[in-house]
Amino acid sequence: MRAFLFFSALLFSFLTICDTENGLDHLEDSDWNMDNLDFVAKTKKKNSHLGIVYNRLAILTRITNAIALQSEAIRKSVRVRDVIAELLRSPPKHLNNLLAIDPLSLLPILEDNLKASLEIQKFSSEMKELNGKREILELMNVSMRYVKGQQINETKMEIFFGSLQDGSFQKTVESCEDWILDSVIKFEKDSGILDSQKILKCLESLKSYDTKIEKVLEQFQLFIQLGEAKEGIQKFNNLSEEALEYPKIVDSVMKLFEKTDKFRRRQKGPELGSEIYLATIEIGKIQSQEPELSLTLGFPDSGDMAKVLGDLKSPWFLEKVARNHSVAELGKGLFGFFKFGKLMKKVEDNWEMLKTNYKEFQNNIIVFSKKMKDIESFKITENDLKVAESSGEIFQKTWSPPDKIGALDFKNLDEILSKMGKLIEKVQFVKNLAKEIAENTEKVGIESFFKELKSGKPINSLPNFHTFKDLAERFRKLKIGQDELKNFKFGANLRKTSTLIQKLKDSKLKSNLENLKSYGEEFQPELVLKMMKFCKTVFSLSNFKETKIFLQIFAALKHGLLEAEQFVKDIGPQYHREHSGKEDSNPILKLENSQEMALSLGRGMRVLRQMVKTLRYKRRLRKVLEYSEGVHDKIQRYNAFEHVREIWRNRKMEISKLLSELENLNKYAEKVQDSSPMEMRKILDEATKVHGFSSIFGPIFEQFKGQKSFLRETRNFEKLSELELNFASHKGYLHAASLSFDELKQYFDEVFDLDHNRHHHHEIEHNHLPAIFICITIFILIILSVFIIYGFTPTGRIKYTNLYLYYFGKPEAFEKRWRYSLFMDRQDGKNALLDAAREINPTNLRKVLKKGAYINAYNKFGNTSLHLATKRGHPEIVEILIQNGADRTLLNAYNKTAEQMIPSNYRATHPEKISRFKKIEKIYEKFKNKKFRNRVPSKFPLDSYHIFIEDRTDDKVTEKFMEQFQSITTDEATVTTTHFVVRTEKDGVFSTDSLDLLVWILSGVIIVKDTWMTECLKNPKQICNEWAFLVEKIRYKGTVYDTVPQWQQAMAKATMPYLCGVYVAVVIQDYANLISLASIVATHGGVICEKFPEKQNFNSGFRPYLHVETGPFFVIHDGKIDLGVYKNDPDGMYTVMTETEFVHFMLGRKIKRNKSHNPIPALNDLED
């Protein structure tokens, strides 16, 4: 029996360990029956090899993140509230707003209101009776507002009816001419002729349809006003007897209002309703937003913090990382983190309780808070009370029973109002449809369709046929609505209506209301109604119990959160007190840049986690390929997003490719799953081969959600919408995470004393000096021989050349290599140096600098990487840049040196970064009088040349050149093009008026004369001598500019962007060169505006940094629009120019810097 129990316990332990290894099984808790898509419970599936690797690396990630947080707590270099906000998955701003509310102070106020509510309930029968009289109060209030307002204008009514008869109304409400609508509607059937310009103009006019019918909508108000008057009269007819009780009703309101005294006598303190309502709003915002994680990426799931203690003791960590050494010292260093984890567990539990309570009783709590807000905001003066009380007396001495106006008198009016109601509906229908067409029609798709028509292909096969077909269907509905408006017949007797209006004016009812109106401010029935509504709100107060529970949970949450926050805040001071004057051997503090390390590792692991999840959802993805034509058609025709429709068309290829890449990754994971962490980390590099595609399942789920058809498909789309499938865009995170393992290995080797090279074994040495000298001499000769032989190898020659240049090189030698920096320093279309500094990646930064990247490059916002790192408070990046020769004297777009980017009052504005900025100040002081050499740029290899040749060059020469140098030439211009060969005139000038060709001049590509090709064919060595054939001058529209070399040099070194601070707005209809112009503007630091820039939205007086005398808003026009108001702008904020003038401006490259000490920025808090 004992043996059986022992065996059972052993088996249970084994299963528990297996379960830990398969820790990602919760990602899809149940499998499904693929035949009918019904989800069925099954035995837990075995984890994939990729899942096993992920789980093991996740152990290391969690421990690293824990070390980082403990380290930051000791150094006091992180805001604890930000850490807590991330763990609760809450945006810090909204969490801070929530915690600003004091639930404990609200509970006594809630109790007082509950007591007052219970006391007043004994008068509920009086309130119920008064509520039955509310109609009289509302009628009196509406009647007085009506009689004090605008009177019915018969003349305007006659003008409106006249417009219906003479056809001017129909012309006004016409959206587009009938023949245009018919040409589109009937085109597929009749294959008629389409006037594309007229159709596009029609689409444009629909945008302003609201404005066009504004006056018509105003005329409709006349009849709405008439209808309200009729309803009021009919109510007085029905309530003529009850209306005489108005004085008694006023008396009842006054008496009941006195009973609500406790609700109106507010004590000083928080407003219960407003505070609770604000809390619900903030909780709602927190739940609707997913914050970006940076401090706790290692803990993707709730409860992950609690796993760290188990991670340290896990068999995998002990064997593969600690190599069976004790983890006690590391665990001791993390004691504060473990305590924080326990405190946060309580906080997380209370947070979940609060969210659950909020979800269940949200409506009750919000209704209560809104009613309390109304009660607390209610204001009434003593004078108001007197006026309200006297309104009954005034009514009694003024009112006399009016004559009733019979139903027959209203017969003709009813007919008019009925007809008008239908007319208003029809106009509203056309108005809404016009707006829908204007907003939802893809104008670009329609334009493309018109171009595709010229190909002569069947219209059904054209790519944008469905877009045109959708437009035709919308135009068909618009035509129906428009025809109904044109054929609308009124047919009512206006004369009878005029007689009725006169009768109403002469009635006793009108006389009564006019008499009451004569009392002015002394008769205000709205005050009585206001008091009655207040009483009703007070009597209807409920949901006290739910609100109290909500506040109690909220109070517990806040108490626990503040306790956890204070605990972490105390870690640093307590640690420094205990270790003051002692040698600090805490292993936690030995990991340098721990937070950046945890961030880099966490980002990569998040991508890998999504891959694991995608692999587990492979059946769901495959099922998508089997969906019916109905699903396909619905997405292809009606999904609002072009990229979704495009990927859905190619879904078979995209999904199959993704699953194939994931399966290959899974096979690779099988090879490394039992290896060391350094070997296992290669899975991250291998994962960069998984490309994926843009997320489409979220938009598709939103499209299908709530519909009765395709329910199973909709459920599948909902699950697939959880996946982030665009893995290619995150490959940088995977590489960075992989690189982090080098530093992690060094750290853990040091912590667990695994670096045996540090240990020295001392042996007794004998004094054999002659032998030693001989050995040393032989050794030196061998070393010298190796160095000499190495110098004859290609690698050696490059190495020795670079060493010579580093110590003895002249500036000219560096300049020759920097000419290629635009291409050498570019990675994935971005400057690798700026990217590494921006991403705070010291490892990548060192690698880029080692290759000789030009260190003083500016980004599009006018900052060098040194400016940026200093401003953001990253001392390690600052030190690396300075030690590699970064120029500390350069000014940015705000005329500040890098050192001046340290905030002057950072202790007040950036308390969380005080230690960082202190370190940066020390670094600048330390290197104040020290200069560092620049890294030697790598030589640009010939095999990296990508030569593109203009089609105007000599065909025979071009063909021979491309044949001889086919490995480095291309017949297609791409973003990797390095050289552009152009045909020049005899004087060496390149002439062109094409903006597409000018893009190359301004892009930094090396522009070479076509004579270079001839010389290279004669002597192939001339291929590396392109600078002797450089185009120096360009002729545009008759003007010659000699700025081509300047542009190439400026782009190579990424100098201050020429258009920094420039905002460009294009006001040309159907502008053909928009893409080229936008490319030029974006390349040189400008901004293409989607909407016309209004100067009041920007800081007054700001100017582009390199063009201080030029207005910052460049308005590109074609002379067809009157822009006089902008040309003559008194503030000089607009620079109005044609495309030709803009090109002259660019080619002229005239610079006048803003030398102000504090240049005005375009906007406050701009990016950097």
From TrEMBL:
Q: Which UniProt keywords apply?
A: ANK repeat, Membrane, Signal, Transmembrane, Transmembrane helix
Identify the residues that the record assigns to the BRCT domain, covering every copy. Answer: 937-1019
The superkingdom of the source organism is Eukaryota
Give the coiled coil ranges: none
PROSITE patterns under this entry?
ANK_REP_REGION, ANK_REPEAT, BRCT
The protein's matches in InterPro entries, at most eight in alphabetical order, are given as: Ankyrin_repeat-containing (IPR053345), Ankyrin_rpt (IPR002110), Ankyrin_rpt-contain_sf (IPR036770), BRCT_dom (IPR001357), BRCT_dom_sf (IPR036420), WSN (IPR003125)
Q: Where are the ANK repeats?
A: 861-893
The residue range of the signal peptide is 1-20
**One Pfam match, by short name?**
Ank_2
* Residues that span the membrane, as ranges: 771-792
Question: What name is this protein filed under?
Answer: BRCT domain-containing protein
Species the sequence originates in: Caenorhabditis nigoni
The protein's gene is named Cnig_chr_III.g11417
